[in-house]
Design goal:
The complex is a heterotrimer of chains A (about 325), B (about 300) and C (about 325). Chain A has about 325 residues and is an alpha/beta fold. Chain A has 12 helices and 12 strands. Chain A has helices at about 55-60, 85-90, 100-105, 110-120, 125-135, 150-165, 180-200, 210-215, 235-240, 245-250, 290-295, 315, and strands at about 5-15, 25-40, 45, 70-75, 75-80, 95-100, 170-175, 200-205, 220-225, 225-235, 300-305, 310. In chain A, α7 (about 180-200) links the parallel β7 and β8 (about 200-205). The two termini of chain C are about 40 Å apart. Classes of the chains: A alpha/beta (about 325), B mainly alpha (about 300), C alpha/beta (about 325).
Amino acid sequence: MTALLRAEDLRKSYQVGRGGLFRRARRFNAVDGVSLTLNRGETLGVVGESGCGKSTLSRLVLGLSPHDSGEITFDGAPLPDEGSDDWRHLRRRMQLVYQDAAGALDPRQSIGTQIAEPLKIHNLPPERAEQALADVGLPQAMAARHPHELSGGQLQRVVIARALTLEPELMVMDEPVSALDVSIQAQIVNLIQDLQQARGMAYLFVSHDLSIVHHVADRVAVMYLGQVVEEAPKAAFYTRALHPYSKALLAAVPVPDPATRGRAAPRIGDPPNPAAPPTGCRFHPRCPHATEQCRVEAPALRDFGGRRAACHRIEELSQ
Amino acid sequence: MTWILLKLLRALVTMGLVLTFVFFVLRLSGDPTLVLLPDDVDQATREFYRAKWGLDAPLWEQYTSYLRALLQGDFGISFRNNIDAFQVVWDRVPKTALLGGTAIAIALLIGMPLGVLAAVYRDSWLDRTVMSIAVFGFSMPNFFLGILLILIFSLKLRVLPSSGSGTWAHLIMPAATLGTGFAAQIARYTRSSMIDVLSKPYMRTARSKGAGLTRRVSQHALPNASVPVVTILGIKVGEMLGWAVVTETVFAWPGIGRLLTSAVASRDLAVVQCIMILLAFTMVAANMVVDLVYGWLDPRVRVGARAQA
Amino acid sequence: MLFSAENLSVEIDRPLRDPVSPVRGVSFSLDAGMTLALVGESGCGKSMTCLAIAGLLPKRGRISGGALKLDGQDLCALPENEAQALRRRHLSSVFQDATGGLNPVRSIGWQVAEAVRLRKGATRHEAQAEAVRLLGRVGLPDPERRAREYPHQFSGGMNQRAMIALAIAGNPRLLIADEATTALDVTLQAQILDLIADLRSSLGMGVIFVTHDLGLVAQTADRVAVMYAGRIAERADVADLFAAPRHPYAHGLLSSLPERQAQGGRLATIPGTVPPIDALPGGCAFAPRCPRVSDRCGQEMPELALGAACHHPLPPGRAAATIREREFS
């Protein structure tokens, strides 16, 4: 199986605060050396807490914001420069769906116009818009409506329909269901999965919700302060996570079953300021197993038979 | 500290630009000898005064000697009465400061409470009344209000003097004239700023603590709402100095404004120059004060600046 | 019994339109040291219920019926100032947006001390000392120094701790936590929940825990009230609700959770969307989305009986959804 998307040592930093006359502005490494692969038809779940860089990553791999260093290849070829003809052509093959569906749509244009817009840009037959609307389970009558007449779940369907018109091979989903109510979440999750089955798209599914990722992903990557600390096939990850941070995350998920009560929450303190990450292993100030080595030396992402984790003490801890 | 130094540096640059601007604009506006000397004076006398006032040298030389003199605190000689221009201006400063200060006090003491009340009782009759008065207050031209006051209180009721200065009675009408428009504007800014603040989640927190209305407004809302009002105030000080010229003329108030009108009319270059520089300095200083008050009112500015430096 | 809401209704006036009722006849009760979860989707009236209890309804809103009994005294029957005094002494709230909920121009210590003074009437000095103690109690390291800092210098988690310190000032008997952990990351959320649980048992507070997250309900609540369109659809002990929900809506909600599905299969869904509060169908508001609907549901509003407000409830104990074994290591 060829990799559809490959990211190699990807880095991106942002300026924080203003620089002064005699002082350089501090920079914040939102994504700091991330390598990932996504195969055709596969779903990679990217999880982590706010400020871990997962949203920045999703924009980088789409080429929507330039990366500082590292390499992104899509279908074997490096990502073309932003704004070039190749770059524009590539838009057809990769699409983004994010949390704020209402913000992604123009309030003054009808739903139909907005779904058909990508087709117009790329000179494709406009009939595809009707098909897309049907594919996401919305009646054709919806095309004449405006965004404010639709519910949150319907809006997210519209955004997905618009992305579908171009028949992309890769969809990046950045918290696609986080803003939705529980009962609507399930509808959209089902839709996302049905579409993948029917069309064989690959998903980069970015979410803070480990339960949803458990449901939709094939593989899971955990990010912490701009770095991937663990990456594993889903089953392996959810049954036996290797990294102490992954374990803490999983232990903190509120399971909807009163029988599991009484588990003590991981006492790992507040997360550090992402703009000033700790030395060595970035998780060490919150890690119950940290040693002097962890404080000084940043652990590499090592291979453990089909899965990867970045921790000095995995061998000891898994005994 | 770097933050304050940077502000000072910026203020200095602004002042330098103002000095240059004032010099060239005034030199380009005409020959003062044409106005100051009688029409029938001969060319030789004209040249004599030109040389005496340093107007015969090339513009560039005039500019450098102007700057040099300013740095030594020499603002030149008033062409009209042959005394130190700075002295002429400085004598008038207390009068204008008194008038302007009183007007600002009126604007704040009337405008802010009215704005707060209007915001707290938003959409009530009180709000509507206050805002109608405010619209009336700032759409009324300054000179018109002044003349109206004179008509009512001096000519009709004969309770206040129509012109001059010296007693508190003289101050009331000019200060009211100058202050009314600003009170109206302050009321409006305070109202919109308060309405914004009153809808903030921390106001609900204060309510849930059981803080009463007075406490919520004075201790929680007002300190937040006054931040933008202070900004406006800094800008308005300059505007107010402009209106002071009109007001002083209407009430024959012997301040900077009236001096400026007469000095312009007589092309008293040194005096006009001195006033312009003083006004520019006042505005720059007002802006610096605003920045300082800002830091005092808003810890995000204060601590942010300190932490970054 | 510490607190009960009896047939509580709330009305909100709207300019140029008829008023709406986001809360329509809600009843529940709780004892000291107990957590009651109010759960439901957005617009179900759970937050409005809390605001009504706390006396924090917006200007246009008012309690239009029912009773709120704190220690047997009806807050709705007392004169306004007496009711507010009771609320101030015994009741406090924590909301979702902690950073926005703290005044940006006042120090953390000042804000907590103010709560102490308003609730207990301490001197400035005592209140300051008490504020530092409270900040330490909620797990802020170095509370002495932290008390002098401002909200923008705190992380979101620290601000929520400060908000909790502010809320427990003066030992209130009832704490309302309205989506108090929703904005926080999971690891922080777990710690804040632990803190609330710890305070609840050590201070003997009753807690009304408002959330949309059924996972949190399962982890924190003793009793649960599931709300839908301004009414309570189901009211049950937490174990009973999760084992055998009786109202079709509660059943639908639980079934739609990924945790309660077969791995990789489709999620169960509730068709349609929540009706807007000003256009509720006659009869049962859930009827248009309900798989068990009958003609009667469209005409007759079901009363809450045996825990479920439904004409055709699921039988007790039989509908237990199979909870998939999940091994979180």
